[in-house]
Amino acid sequence: MIRQAMSGGSSIRGLVLIGYRGTGKSTVGRILAEGLGRPFLDCDREIESRSGRSIRSIFNESGEGAFRDWEERTLDALTTESPGAILATGGGAVLREANRRRLRGFGFVAWLTADPAELARRLEADRLGLAGRPALTTAGTLDEIAQVLADRSPLYAELANAVIPTDGKDPSQVAVAILGCWTP
Ligand code: S3P
To answer: What separation in angstroms does the CA of 58 have from each of 30, 98, 126?
Structure first.
């Protein structure tokens, strides 16, 4: 069903996945890239390979500002080097205006959403979520989600071409929902 839905033509417009941590951007991006035969890029993994450091260590040792600089440089490079790719961004990539401009120019932007309680459950169930993702505030998970989402939702909304709710859907169903809004 996915392959059927993905049998579109090719174009140099890319697809950008934005949204909070735990919304499935990387998993869904990989499914779409494989189905469409396009490159898949995960901004966080690219930052780690280009910097030779983990996201957590950049945050902890150099601070969030240094991470955001890496993020901006990496998004600049990826969107220049790989037109037409499927690009999964980190949850905070929308914070800088320069990034939003860059992502808008790269292609169709899909905002993956989920209920905050569901996000908390997914992040807690995900060992990487606990061990690998740096905390963004000093609040607990659900409070942190509510606080960060309140700040970021207007930015996600401003950038998004489509809003894709993920509650109750598996990643393949989310991929199909994106293809219902975007013609590759
Ligand atoms: C962040 C989200 C993370 C990663 C970094 C900061 C954020 O990406 O970029 O830990 O500010 O929301 P994911 O959304 O892929 O977890």
So the answer is: 25, 21, 21
pLDDT tens digits, one per residue of 101-160: 999 999 999 999 999 999 988 887 765 555 567 778 777 788 999 999 999 999 999 999
Q: Is 66 in the pocket of ligand 1 (CB under 6 A)?
A: no
On whether the CB atoms of residues 98 and 127 are closer than 8 A, the answer is no
CA of 162 to the centre of ligand 1 (A): 20
| CB under 8 A, 24+ apart: contacts of 91-94 | 91/19, 91/20, 91/21, 91/148, 91/152, 92/68, 92/136, 92/152, 93/18, 93/43, 94/18, 94/152, 94/155, 94/156, 94/159
134 pocket-lining for ligand 1 (C-beta < 6 Å): yes
Residues 6+ apart with CB under 8 A from 163: 111, 113, 157
In short, whether 24's Cβ falls inside 6 Å of ligand 1 is no
